[in-house]
């Protein structure tokens, strides 16, 4: 459905904020402007839930999770940045594969099946978006995805 993304995103973050581990802080860098997208809210909520849960789960020492939304010409770029364990450069693409989990994730006994990002990728692509990651081992990770923006609704004079 047609959705104002910033309001929707605030609601998602609010839900996490109510139940966040003490050592984690959330920071929002979201534009004030209204930005409309055409999304399946259930699916996009699964995408964001997984990305945000990962950011929390893979930040065992805590730190800040920053939410950023940037408007490019015809699309939104959403970024979720953490200061967690990070991902080695040669594993960056693999994290979107089914059942892939880094050794670090497995040895830390953090639960998971390795499906979250594979599903996220499938859903983002079904919305004609792209998803990718930047990371530095031991420093943190940022997950980015894009969504096409809807044009402003034009009122037709009658
Ligand atoms: P699931 O989401 O199915 O419960 P999962 O979190 O292990 O399990 P994905 O969400 O698909 O699986 O992530 C795949 C792997 O990518 C993780 O196991 C972890 O190794 C790595 N990863 C994902 N997000 C992060 C992050 N924010 N920081 C560090 N590593 C990450
Ligand atoms: Mg996950």
UniProtKB/TrEMBL annotation:
Query: Boundaries of each Histidine kinase domain copy?
Result: 1-151
**Compartments where found:** Cell membrane
Put simply, this protein is called histidine kinase
Q: According to the record, which residues of the full protein are present here? A: 453 to 610 of 610
């Amino acid at each position: 459905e047609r959705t104002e993304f910033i309001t929707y995103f605030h609601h998602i973050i609010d839900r996490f904020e109510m139940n966040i581990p003490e050592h984690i802080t959330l920071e929002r860098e979201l534009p004030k402007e209204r930005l409309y997208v055409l999304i399946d809210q259930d699916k996009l909520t699964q995408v964001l839930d997984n990305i945000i849960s990962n950011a929390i789960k893979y930040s065992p020492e805590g730190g800040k999770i920053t939410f950023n939304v940037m408007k490019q010409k015809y699309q939104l770029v959403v970024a979720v940045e953490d200061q967690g364990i990070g991902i080695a450069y040669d594993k960056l693409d693999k994290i979107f594969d089914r059942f892939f989990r880094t050794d670090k994730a497995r040895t830390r006994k953090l639960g998971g099946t390795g499906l979250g990002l594979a599903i996220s990728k499938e859903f983002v692509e079904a919305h004609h978006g792209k998803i990718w990651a930047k990371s530095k081992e031991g420093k943190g990770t940022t997950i980015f995805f894009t969504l096409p923006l809807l044009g402003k609704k034009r009122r037709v004079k009658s």
